[in-house]
């Protein structure tokens, strides 16, 4: 006898808005047969949201409406009943409107907008509100509608000029249609209430209206008639702006137009005779007539001007007397390196300047070029610091006068060094076969110098600072190399079990950026005497060496050249002694004792058994009485590349060659 629900029950579909909602039924019972009647009441649950007819609503409200005006809104519908039905409305926060919720006779709710604060379209053209409908369920269900409020305009604003007074100037010979000024006004209203028309004010003189025209739409004030500075120098024009409302708003402004004088009047000369006729014996300075000149124009237009013609009396002036320019070597050809700046206070052609590079050194003319018109100095080719460090030239600046005036300015170009040369090994030679030419005796103590690696870097300064490190060695524990000297010394005492032959590879690096390097291979033999080394060398030499005969002829040639050199030196010495004696006898026979005869020049070749590069070449001049003279040394050719100077180093004997020549510590005699 259980009563069950056979399918889902929807109260709103069965009963709609009726409440209460009930379903009637009958039950038949057998044995005994009985008939029962029953009813089931369907209770409502909050299963439906309130619904607005549309998701958006639009209202048009004039800004002229007073506070308190009411605007009904469309109501929402909720099919639920009782507390689950629509209960209230809510309005989003805003400064102008409030919401008044009313109840109908049947208990349903509706809402009205109430204007609490007057609208101003110029402040805000439109408002966006949100209306929310809520039922009484737990939790409550809701629906929203967007309310768009358009604020309609009312002619409540008068036009306003952006400035009360405008100032303008116009030349008196300005043609008709010339723009004088443009006035501008604005109106916050919309539509016809905001459209502006410009016009002359009623108290503007008719003469002004004949000379000027005003565009009613754009506010442009233009010349209409012929202006005359001599007649009127300043015009005061009054203008107005009106909107197109039913009751138009009006604004006023003033335009001050200054007429600029032009030289449109010729001078008038009046001659007044004072003394006529003039007697022939009239003294110089006698007044004959008075001249008066008048010009209706003003200021400079009314003066008698005397023009002074220019004379080329000013030479060009440079901003500085000399220029020092620093250019890195290996530069790109054709680059500008300097702009020689000069001015000339003369006028016209007398002030037209031209720049010329004076033809002095032919090297300079091939390397540099200057722009004749603007004085830009160009470098035509790439420079090499190791070839030449400094260039000196002269730039001539000439004006276009007749005769022209010139100014010379010196330019010194210094070539700065880049690390573009790797160290070059002078000793040991890299172009011969490695031999054990360096000998060290067995049992040599630690710290003894065996040999020295000599190298030179054609760069300058820090780029030429060479450091030496031991890269490879037969026995790394036996020898050390000086970091900056290149000296190879024994690191420990030699022992009997040490190998008899050693090969060292020395790495040479400069300190430039980027670092460049080279290597040198040094061979060292451990032997009691040189004979042992030579025996070893003979043993390792090829049996059939085709060059063994060449060695004999080379030795013979050296002997012959040495003999010829010795004979030549003896001959030169005899000749010098003869000349010295002759000059001494001539000096003794002279009455003057102010000077002494110098002795013969002495040439002293000093080759240090050391290891200096061949470009360290000095010439020193001394006398026979050199103890009383100063030692003068020429600057070493440190910047010259290794191959650009004469070689002063003998083959196989690296070192530093000095030539010391005697020089007189007195002035030469007339005979000399």
Task: Describe the structure in your own words.
With 672 residues, this protein is mostly beta strands. Among the domains are: 11-41, no CATH class; 56-152, Immunoglobulin-like (Sandwich), CATH 2.60.40; 160-260, Cadherins (Immunoglobulin-like); 263-278 and 287-308, no CATH class; 317-416, Sandwich (Immunoglobulin-like), CATH 2.60.40.60; 424-526, Sandwich (Immunoglobulin-like). The chain has five helices and 41 strands. A four-stranded mixed beta sheet has the order 3-9-8-5, with no helix packed on it. A hairpin with a 5-residue loop joins β35 and β36. The longest helix is centred in the C-terminal third of the chain and has 41 residues, at 548-588. It is flat, with a radius of gyration of 58 Å. Mean pLDDT is 81; it is low at 530-543 and 590-672.
Strand content: 35-45%
CATH-defined fold name of the domain at 424-526: Immunoglobulin-like
Instruction: Work out the oligomeric state of the chains in this entry.
Output: single chain
Structural class: mainly beta
CATH architecture of the domain at 424-526: Sandwich
What is the rounded Rg? 58 Å
CATH superfamily of the domain at 424-526: Cadherins
- Number-wise, the strands total 41
| Sheet with the most strands, sense and barrel status | 4 strands, mixed
Rough shape? flat
User: Mean pLDDT score, rounded?
Assistant: 81
In brief:
It is built from five helices and 41 strands.
List keywords for this structure.
mainly beta; Immunoglobulin-like; four-stranded mixed β-sheet; 5 helices; 41 strands; disordered C terminus
């Amino acid at each position: 006898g259980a009563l069950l629900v056979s399918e889902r029950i929807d109260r709103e579909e069965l009963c709609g808005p009726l409440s209460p909602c009930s379903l009637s039924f009958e039950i038949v019972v057998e044995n005994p047969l009985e008939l029962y009647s029953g009813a089931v009441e369907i209770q409502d649950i909050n299963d439906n949201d309130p619904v607005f007819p549309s998701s958006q609503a639009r209202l048009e409200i004039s800004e002229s409406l007073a506070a308190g005006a009411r605007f009904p809104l469309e109501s929402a519908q909720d099919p639920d009943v009782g507390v689950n039905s629509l209960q209230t409305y809510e309005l989003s926060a805003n400064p102008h409107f409030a919401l008044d919720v009313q109840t109908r006779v049947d208990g349903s709710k509706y809402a009205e907008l109430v204007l609490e604060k007057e609208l101003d379209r110029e402040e805000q053209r439109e408002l966006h509100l949100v209306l929310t409908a809520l039922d009484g369920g737990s939790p409550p269900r809701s629906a929203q509608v967007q309310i768009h409020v358009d604020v309609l305009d009312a002619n409540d604003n008068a036009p306003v000029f952006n400035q009360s007074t405008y100032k303008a100037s116009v030349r008196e010979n300005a043609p008709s249609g010339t723009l004088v000024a443009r006035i501008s006004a604005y109106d916050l209203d919309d539509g016809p209430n905001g459209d502006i028309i410009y016009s002359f004010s009623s108290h503007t003189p008719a003469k002004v209206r004949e000379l000027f025209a005003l565009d009613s739409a754009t506010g442009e004030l233009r010349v209409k008639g012929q202006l005359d500075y001599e007649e009127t120098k300043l015009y005061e024009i009054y203008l107005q702006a009106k909107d197109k409302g039913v009751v138009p708003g009006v604004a006023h402004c003033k335009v001050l137009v200054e007429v600029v004088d032009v030289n449109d009047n010729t001078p008038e000369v009046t001659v007044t005779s004072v003394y006529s006729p003039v007697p022939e014996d009239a003294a110089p300075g006698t007044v004959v007539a008075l001249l008066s000149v008048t010009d209706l124009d003003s200021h400079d237009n009314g003066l008698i001007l005397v023009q002074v013609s220019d004379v080329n009396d000013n030479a060009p002036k440079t901003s500085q007397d000399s220029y020092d320019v620093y250019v890195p070597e290996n530069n790109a050809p054709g680059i500008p390196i300097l702009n020689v700046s000069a001015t000339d206070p003369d006028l016209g052609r007398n002030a037209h300047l031209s720049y010329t590079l004076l033809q002095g050194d032919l090297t300079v003319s091939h390397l540099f070029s200057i722009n004749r018109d603007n004085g830009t100095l160009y470098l035509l080719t790439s420079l090499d610091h190791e070839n030449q460090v400094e260039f000196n030239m002269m730039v001539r600046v000439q004006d276009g006068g007749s005769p022209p005036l010139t100014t010379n300015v010196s330019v010194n170009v210094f070539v700065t060094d880049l690390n573009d040369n790797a160290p070059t090994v002078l000793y040991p030679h890299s172009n011969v076969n490695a031999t054990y030419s360096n000998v060290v005796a067995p049992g040599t103590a630690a710290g003894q110098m065996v040999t020295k690696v000599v190298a030179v870097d054609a760069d300058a300064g820090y780029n030429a600072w060479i450091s030496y490190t031991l890269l490879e060695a037969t026995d790394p524990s036996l020898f050390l190399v000086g970091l900056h000297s290149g000296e190879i010394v024994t690191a420990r005492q030699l022992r009997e079990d040490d190998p008899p032959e050693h090969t060292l590879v020395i790495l040479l690096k400069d300190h430039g950026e980027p670092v460049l390097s080279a290597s040198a291979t040094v061979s060292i033999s451990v032997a009691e005497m040189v004979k042992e080394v030579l025996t070893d060398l003979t043993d390792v030499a090829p049996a059939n060496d085709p060059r063994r005969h060449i060695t004999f002829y080379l030795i013979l040639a050296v002997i012959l050249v040495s003999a010829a050199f010795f004979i030549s030196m003896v001959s030169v010495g005899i000749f010098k002694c003869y000349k010295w004696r002759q000059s001494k006898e001539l000096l003794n026979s002279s009455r003057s004792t102010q000077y002494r005869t110098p002795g013969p020049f002495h040439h002293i070749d000093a080759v240090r058994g050391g290891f200096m590069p061949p470009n360290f070449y000095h010439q020193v001049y001394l006398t026979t009485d050199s103890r009383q003279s100063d030692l003068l040394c020429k600057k070493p050719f440190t910047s010259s590349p290794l191959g650009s100077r004469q070689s002063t180093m003998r083959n196989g004997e690296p070192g530093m060659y000095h030539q010391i020549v005697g020089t007189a510590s007195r002035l030469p005699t007339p005979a000399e």
